[in-house]
Amino acid sequence: MQILLFPEAEAVGLQKLACCCKLFARVPWAAWVELVTPYFESAAGQNMVCCSVEVMLRVHFVQQYLGLSDSAMACTLKNQALVRHLVGLPENEHAVPDAAAITALRNVLESHRLTEDDLDSVGMLSRA
């Protein structure tokens, strides 16, 4: 196992974010948002989620792409303005979803089986 020093690790992270930006352009966000919105709204009604459907899906996408846990993603959003900008969050770090909100969205996706088959049906996996 290779151990990366901080500058090297930061460069690897920036490269991954650059690739993620390219993938963002290929994701059919409108179709994914339309698919998830009914389930998301019922979760939001229970005060489980704090941002728009699209922002939360972008957070989920980045989280999965970077391979982060819910708490690590929440920490990344709080501490990294570049990531907040990428997912469409305002500069104000107080509007950042916490680990509970990120977990809630993942639970909604899993409990309603909005998995690979559904995402493939909107063209997400074939394009990304």
Word description of this protein:
With 128 residues, the protein is mostly helical. It has one domain (28-127). 70% of the residues lie in helices and 0% in strands. It has helices at 6-24, 29-44, 53-66, 70-79, 81-87, 99-111, 116-121, 124-127. The radius of gyration is 15 Å and the shape is globular. The two termini are 29 Å apart.
Outline:
The chain is an all-alpha fold.
Q: Report the β-strand fraction as a percent range.
A: under 5%
Helix/strand/pairing class, anyone? mainly alpha
Structural Rg:
15 Å
Low-confidence stretches: 1-9
For the termini, the CA-CA separation is 29 Å
Detail the topology: elements first, then pairings.
Blueprint: H1 6-24, H2 29-44, H3 53-66, H4 70-79, H5 81-87, H6 99-111, H7 116-121, H8 124-127
Helix pairs in contact: 1-3, 2-6, 4-6
Question: Characteristics of this structure?
Answer:
70% helix; 128 residues; globular; 8 helices
